[in-house]
Every structure is written in structure tokens, then in C-alpha cells.
Amino acid sequence: MAKIKLTKTELKAQTDALKRFQRFLPMLQLKKQQLQGEIAGIVAKAEEVSAKERAVRAGLERWVGLLATDDGQLEGLVTVRKVNTGSANIAGVQIPTFESIETDVGEIDLWATPAWVDGAVEAAKEILSLQCERAVFEEQRRLVAAELQQTSQRVNLFEKVKIPACREAIRVIKIALGDEQTAAVTRGKIAKSRVPESGEGVAA
Questions:
Q1: pLDDT tens readout for residues 51-75
Q2: Scanning 48, 86, 119, 172, which has the fewest C-beta atoms within 10 Å of its C-beta?
Q3: Which CATH number fits the domain 8-167, given the four candidates 1.10.287.3240, 3.40.50.360, 3.30.70.120, 1.10.8.100?
């Protein structure tokens, strides 16, 4: 513990600091719980999106053989041009929110490609959209997790360092002031006991 002054002024300063830490700690603990809950919610939403993507991919199984024999004509046919996002605030953390994507579709020769290509293109768009949505959820989780780490560090600082240090400082100062007061009383009694002796000597 850093050296403290054994004075009444320091005692008041340490007492005020302790009250301040004890007032802030419950708010930090509540924020920590909120952030933990938000992360769990984000992870659950991301898993829902992953489940949807798996379902769409499962629906593509009937086209897999056809795509494989298409001589690479469909490779890179659909690409993401832009991901449109908004923003939201979670427990003081600014996070992105997924809105939609804009895609580019390569030129399709309607005469040279089979009819099922249109369905494959739409499925590809949906998969890309779900992948981008999941990526946004992953970014949300990263940002909220970073805030959770900072909040947890502050909670630990208050619980394990600041509050115990203030309590120990208050204990030490009170002991020192008590000892000082006892010593002062003792000196006063000694001085008082000597006054009559001095007075009697003058009278004689």
C-alpha cells in the first residue's frame, strides 16, 4: 500500500473514496452482467443465421452435381458489392447492425445456361447475405467482448484493490489517531498532576 498520511484530513479523503468506490461497484457489476447477457444473445443469433445457411446449402444438394459439371461457368457468378449496415447501442457500446447486401451478378447467357441457374443464383445471394449477417454478428460480439473485458478489469480493480486498500488505510489511520489521542490524554494527565506540586512550592 502506498504511504498515507496519518491525519484526519487523510481519513476523510479515504472514507470519501471508499464510499465512491462502493457506490460505483454495483453499477459496474450490473453492466458486466448486461454485457455477458448481450454476448450470449449475439452468439445465439449468429447460430440461428448459421442454421439458416446450412438449410439453404442443404437445398442446393440437388444442384451440386450440375454445378460440378458446369465447367466453372458459375464460379464467382454472384459477388457482394456492398454490405448495408446500421448502428445500435448496447450497454454503452456502439455496434453495427446488419440491414442488407447489394450484389453483382455476372452476365448469364440465357441460351447457353440451363433454367435451374436462376434458382442457383438466388440461393447464392441468400447464402452470401447470411454470411454477411453472421460476420456483422461476429463484429458485434468482438466489440461487446472488448467492453466486457474492460468492465471486468474495473470490477476486479474495485473489488480486489481499491476498496480493500481504502479499508486498510482507514484502519491504519484510525489506529494512529487513536494512539495519538491516548498519548495526548496521558501527557495531559501528567502535566495536570504536576501543576499542584508547582503551586505548593510557590506558596511555601
A1: 999 998 887 766 655 554 444 445 5
A2: 86
A3: 1.10.287.3240
